[in-house]
Amino acid sequence: MTGETSHELSVERRIAAPPEKVWEVMTERLTEWWCPKPWTTEIVEMDPRPGGRSAMIMRGPNGEEHPQEGIYLAYEPGRRFAFTDAFTVGLKPQGPFMIGIFEIEPDGDDTLYSAKARHWTAEAMEQHREMGFEPGWGAVADQLKELCEKEA
User: Fold this and answer.
1) Pairing with 113, which of 71, 77, 83, 102 sits 20 to 30 Å away (CA)?
2) Does a cis peptide bond (omega within 30 degrees of 0) precede residue 38?
């Protein structure tokens, strides 16, 4: 799915697990689902509050490293969190790429999960799409879904 006027890319999944379980896995077990396998995630620091640091390193199977440094913009327990790479701690600007928004909502006995990437420009959005947004973020959503449903 895309939102062309908002420069947004998104994925959604219906997860056969209660929102409480999905939120727990989303926030407490990030290293188990954040990167498409065989990539891994190392948490450097997560301070889940507006302005708090969000820092991790994604590692590939061939020694690739992609550090991510930014801040949380929003953190609503049981509902959503959002971060950006446009700033580091202390609101120090850096070259922005996107705002990531991860939300859940009850859907009967299940949970609707959505992940959105909003970009400053159409060019940045297209760059993210070409980098493999749909297959990458889709795989991550599937990994989250599998973990939650296995334990529901």
Assistant:
1) 71
2) yes
Mean pLDDT over 21-25 rounds to: 97
The answer to whether residues 39 and 75 touch, using CB atoms and an 8 Å cutoff, is no
Structure tokens at 60: 């590939």
b/e per residue 69-78 (b: at least 16 CB within 10 A): bbbbbebeee
Yes or no: say if 80 and 102 are a contact pair by the CB < 8 Å rule.
Answer: yes
Backbone angles phi, psi at 66, to 5 degrees: -130, 95
| Confidence tier at 127 by pLDDT (50, 70, 90) | very high
Element (H, E) at 8: strand 8-15
Residue 99 CA to residue 66 CA, distance in Å, equals: 17
